[in-house]
Amino acid sequence: MEQDNYILVDGLHEAIIAEDVWQAAQVKLISQAKKYEHVNRGKDTKTHLLSGIVRCPICGAGMYGNKSIKRKKDGTKYKDFYYYGCKHRTMTRGHKCDYKKQIREELLDDAVAEVIVKLVGNPKFAEMMQEKINSKLDTAAIDTELASYEKQLRQYYAVKLKLAEEIDSLDPDDRHYIKRKADLDDRLYRMYDKIENVETQLIETRAKKQAVEAEKLTGDNIYKVLIYFEKLYAVMNEIERRQLMEALISEIQIYEERKPNGQWLKSIKFSFPIIEEDMNLSLEDNKYVETIIKLQLVEK
């Protein structure tokens, strides 16, 4: 059923997360959502969760979701196989990338979701997230810069006013009237230039402060989404999950060859600062070896 056709009714059950947190998360997801590539459009159109986010281990280009259709000897189809593959567009040492491995989507998608669930379930991680949400924003340096520009602007306006008064008080009968007025006019015009320059700097600095404050608010909302990740992920449809991954993750690295433990996933790089150290996480109750997750800030 299409999402637009859902029947929505008010329930009596307790909400999974607070309404304000959900709304803030939706605003963030919509603002950061990027266009992603659809393949095999039709009745069975599928949203590929990590398409373009997964990186080719050879050329580093994004790997995209595809569907493989194979038929049996009697003409009937095998079950559709969805996979991530490199489009071989990037040149490596003068040659197109020749990485031909097909990474099963379900396997990699589940591994990434499991890693994030284990990450947010780590008591140390949850504590750090709460600290970041509760932390106060330090804008002292920007505030000092703003105060300096505002003071300078007040001084320039005072000088401008004084010059205007001097021009008004000139005696037209004074033998040096023309020269004195020209001199004062020149100083006044130069003062207007200085005022314009400081006003521009003041506007830019105020915008910088607003951006920093907005980034703090955005970061807090994302941290809240992470804390409730498992519950949110369970009730999201494919498109919502895709938008969530785009908002959270910058890139995913995979191994060139599948590991003996069955894993392709090598590392995840998040799109925002979490912690400055690596955390080792094991998948599926330690059946797989530990996968290092890179928790670092990506410059945008």
Written description of the protein model:
This protein has 7 helices and 10 strands. 47% of the residues lie in helices and 13% in strands. It has 300 residues and is of the alpha+beta class. It is elongated, with a radius of gyration of 29 Å. It has a 3-stranded mixed beta sheet. It has a 3-stranded antiparallel beta sheet with strand order 2-3-6. Strands 4-5 form a two-stranded antiparallel sheet. It has one domain. Helix 3 runs antiparallel to helix 5 (177-227). It has helices spanning 19-32, 105-120, 123-134, 140-168, 177-227, 229-235, 238-248; strands spanning 54-55, 63-68, 81-86, 91-92, 95-96, 103-104, 249-254, 265-270, 279-281, 291-293. Residues 34-43, 275-282 and 284-300 have low confidence and may be disordered.
Number of helices: 7
Low-confidence stretches: 34-43, 275-282, 284-300
Order of helices and strands: HEEEEEEHHHHHHEEEE
Oligomer: single chain
Mean pLDDT: 75
What is the helix content?
40-55%
Q: What is the rounded distance between the termini?
A: 37 Å
Task: Please give the order of strands in the largest beta sheet.
Answer: 1-7-8
* Tertiary shape: elongated
Question: Structural class per helix/strand content?
Answer: alpha+beta
Rg calculated over all Cα atoms = 29 Å
Main beta-sheet annotation:
3 strands, mixed
- The figure for the number of domains is 1
Count of extended strands: 10
**β-sheet strand percentage:** 5-15%
